[in-house]
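Lecture notes, structural biology module. Today: joint structure prediction for complexes of two components.
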Amino acid sequence: MTLKYISTLVGAVAMAGSLLIGSTAAAEETKVGFIYVGPIGDFGWTNRHDIGRHAVQEEFGDKVKTGFVESVKEGPDSERVIRQMAADGYKLIFTTSFGFMNPTLKVAKQFPDVKFEHATGYKRADNVSTYSSRFYEGRYVVGKIAGKMTKTNIIGYVGSFPIPEVVRGINAMTLAARSINPDVKVKVAWVSTWYDPGKEGDAAKALIDAGADVILQHTDSPAPLQVAESRGVWAVGQASDMAKFAPKSQLTAIVDNWNGYYIARTKAVMNGTWKSEDTWGGFKAGMVELAPFNKAIPSDVVELANATRKGIEDGTILPFAGPFNKQDGSVGAADGTSLDDGTLLGMNWYVEGVEGSLPK
Amino acid sequence: MLLKIEKRAEYSKAMVYLTPVIALVLTVLASIILFKLLGVNPIEALYQFFVAPLDSKYELSELFVKATPLILCAIGLSVGFRANVWNIGAEGQLTMGAIVGSSLFIYFPETESVFLLPAMIMLGAVGGGAWAAIPAYFKTRFNANEILTSLMLVYVAILVLSLLVHGPWRDPAGFNFPESQTFSPSATMPILVSGTRMHFGTLLALLAVLGTWIMLARTLIGFQVKVIGAAPRAGGYAGFSQKKVVWFVLLFGGAMAGIAGISEVSGPIGQVLPTISPGYGFTAIIVAFLGRLHPVGIFFAGLLMALTYLGGETAQISLGLPVAVTGVFQGMVLFFLLACDVLVHYRFRLNTARKVVS
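The predicted structure, tokenised, for the full assembly:
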């Protein structure tokens, strides 16, 4: 049997099938698609993007139809799913994981009329924008709190993969913590996954056993917070407010907020004003937020945190302003200078105060 | 116990081949109930699962793209399973094949030779085979259980890949992100049908199906594999070396998985990523059994399994069904198949032994 023959046969069956069901497509609505790397119920990364999707749906009502595919594996599957959405009449497609970068670009080339938005990547095209959030601004504020709250002067950090985005967060937090408490040491446990409650929890346990009394994480499940809660140490939530998993332990959480961006970009497509651009927003753009502070945090620490946040927002505080050293003792940034975005995007070294070596 | 299960003295040959069909029908019936409970029109859901992914040339080609690694791995595994050698580590062998195969491009990216791709495929087979040689050595030398050794090596292979992609194999122009540079045209699998992603690897899978079929039916080693599997003692009396068969099936399975790995990397992926396979090596175990360990059966089972994945994606896009439904679906296929299998080989009987009333 040739491919063509099978195709004809199947086509006939398909046609019969669609006659049976009847046409369901409604006219005039803008279809907006989302490709997720995790399950929508992960309480973290994907969940926040899906909340953004709901915000778009609510904002535009009948004029927009949103759709999503969850737990899409990075690799050949993602290219098919993205392509399928584009072929299905979606006009704007958000691909919300770094690993979707090259597949997004490949599909974008075949569908010049469809607009694509890739989160956390660096390759753009006429119909591909990139967007990300300056999470490290949130980590800098958290670092101030952690530096004040730690008694053992050891902060534990559960890391996913040693990519620049994660390393940047570790460094921002370490710089902030050591700016008020120079004795702070940061221990990092890499788990090689974005979402694996078992591994994340084990890493948190190991860090606590090694003396850490504040646990930070750059992974998506609430497991490290749950471990912190049961062991009576502090923790910081990731991506969404995780207080319900650790009501006593969560100091605050770094919350992603994509709602405003997704609504603005959808509107731009509907108005025909969409342009390919690169967006990297932080506190000021409303893309990074902090969950309500734990009541147990003393008021002077809350004040410090709020002042830091305000300083970052109005530009008077730059998290990566010098002088500071790299882990190996060489100069990270000299006095009076601050690292530019290019350096931040490719960051692959620790600052002084982080223990262990970066996996190479 | 009122019922007891006993082995049938004779079982129907026809039923052995009918059970996959019966299992499929039962899955469809059970899924109609499932879709009803989820509040989805079952006919539309089944249409999205089984028909919509096939309604164009492009989507049909995607079926083959998805099925290619499944078929290659399952073919390799099935030969081992026939010989009662339980290689569970195809995922690791696939990964190692991808690593060794793509090393050629990574270290010689400028090469434009037409021999680059064939050499990469060969190295892919060598890499996968070498990874499977470790459990083969431990089994034949120390009688170590290959289920455990091959499975553990999966995690080792994945971590080796992670080490390379996060380190020396990173794209120098990639902002330290864990990805290699994208493969050059001479390191990429040629596309079979223009405008699609169906690549040379699919042809390799077809060759593997045919070659394995002939090998099992017509060659001495194929005969030895079957005899050692069905009756190891008879094989021994016939002078067949069990060790030789263990080595052969593991190397063969590893090589097939390795080819699957390199054909993914230099096919639809086009670069080395921290994860190469979304579990093809494990899903291939299901495919091998769904295909009754027969090469032709595996070919169709691979296509069916690929269809459930594609259908799951379509159902998510068009109906908003959660991804877990795909998993439930695949689970049901396997459950009904195994359940039918039990009934083909065994039967239930009322327990006639009565208690003695004193």
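Point to remember: Chain A has eleven helices and 14 strands.
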